[in-house]
Amino acid sequence: MSTSLFDLMRSRRSIRAYAGDPIPAETLALLEEAASLAPTSRDRKPCRFYTVTDKAQLAQLAKAKAAGSAFTAQAAAAIVVAADSTVSDTWIEDSSIAMTYMMLAAEALGLGCCWVQMHLRSDENGISAEENVRRILALPEQFRVVGFLALGQKEVTP
Ligand SMILES: Cc1cc2nc3c(=O)[nH]c(=O)nc-3n(C[C@H](O)[C@H](O)[C@H](O)COP(=O)(O)O)c2cc1C
After folding, report:
1. Distance from the CA of 96 to the center of ligand 1, in angstroms?
2. Long-range contacts of 66-69 (CB under 8 A, 24+ apart)
3. What is the reported pTM?
4. 13 CA from centroid of ligand 1 (Å)
5. Which of 58, 72, 87, 120 has its CA 20 to 30 A from that of 129?
């Protein structure tokens, strides 16, 4: 393992408050590339990555579960990891590794991010958080959503 990767792993923290600046499209593309480089069982690659920057959709994602996601409304972007469960039965593992690759890539790019869990969670009306994300992104039923990364520029403390 290179020293720089080890340093990134040491310095990374979950960031839930962001400076207001947008994230350049090429930076978001790099994060998607990082996610797509993650290994998957039998190389089935069941995951799709959906980058959300629309404020209204971010606000919807923030309410997809009852707690622990509200800060998404102030994020510059979210990258949702959705896996086709008919492609692979290891969608949880594959999605989680992709999330982890993206978290480390975000740290390498100087961005703040936080994993927001959807799988096994529900909103304040008891509706599955995964179902809410499928509705927000118009995804078919077989797509399972472990979670998404909320992302933004790190706030600079004076
Ligand atoms: C599987 C998983 C689910 C998580 N879900 C949430 C979440 O829904 N909301 C949240 O604010 N943080 C969430 N986190 C972030 C953890 O709370 C955080 O990683 C942990 O407290 C350690 O802090 P650190 O990331 O700063 O080292 C999640 C992390 C993981 C790995």
Report:
1. 12
2. 66/121, 66/122, 66/123, 66/124, 68/116, 68/117, 68/121, 69/116, 69/150
3. 0.97
4. 9
5. 87
